[in-house]
Amino acid sequence: MHEVAQKIKSDIKKEAGDFITVSIGIAPNRFLAKLASGLHKPDGLDEINKDNILEIYGRLALQDLSGIAQNNAVRLASAGIYTVCDFYCADVATLKRAFHSIGGYYWYLRLRGWEIDGVEFSRKSFGNSYALPRPLAKSDELSPILAKLTEKMCFRLRTAGFKARGVGLFINYQNGNFWHKTRLMADFMYESGDFFKCAYKLLCDSPYKESVRVLAVSCFDLAKLSVIQPDMFGMQAKKYNLANSVDAINAKWGSFVLGPASLLLSKENVKDRIAFGGVRDLI
């Protein structure tokens, strides 16, 4: 592996000269290989293996790990984990409690060299959430944000080749209250507008009229999209073809180049962000 890595570096230098350098990491999984590539930037070649992993972990801070930003570091500290070595030595139960999810188990495997980030798991739902930068309380104020979250969710749903019957809405309010409701429809849905109508009805059902801190929409009860059930007037096929055409244009030219006019109202409230690791179908 070292010979291959060195040849890659030599070939780049031969073709591009000294203007471009590359750091290469060698490790049992992608996460550790990325970590190794950053040890001696901008022109490093390092390997992480069973013989040196603890020594390397001992030189790093938690936030040196890709995917561990300040919020996750605080979560880990609440579980008594302050260093990368603490992180490595923690058992699965402790990490699950710290992350409040199965993500703790994934970190347990990732830190030990198991390939977890390239594994496809059975998908049960799709969802998107957003923490509002300023307080909004009225349904018509929240509607453009909900529309954009729904569009992002549905793009991922369709790209993965799924349709869904269930829609869920979660709201966390500024005063600490939270509210959650789901609805299971009679028929499977595919087009963003159908999901948004259902999600907006759920939003209007909330008994709280307070300022919202976090808004999240999800879909569940998934099924692989093999064929579209035809209806008498061919509307389902038209919706299917339109959604696919819009997705293809947005995938080529940029997210939300085409979309509902209501998305224009969300620009000042919803900024596009890219998350690390957790979203495999990144857009």
From TrEMBL:
A biological process from GO: DNA repair
Superkingdom in the source lineage: Bacteria
Domain called UmuC: residue spans: 1-69
Assigned GO CC terms: cytosol
Example GO molecular function: damaged DNA binding
Family classification: Belongs to the DNA polymerase type-Y family.
Entry protein name: UmuC domain-containing protein
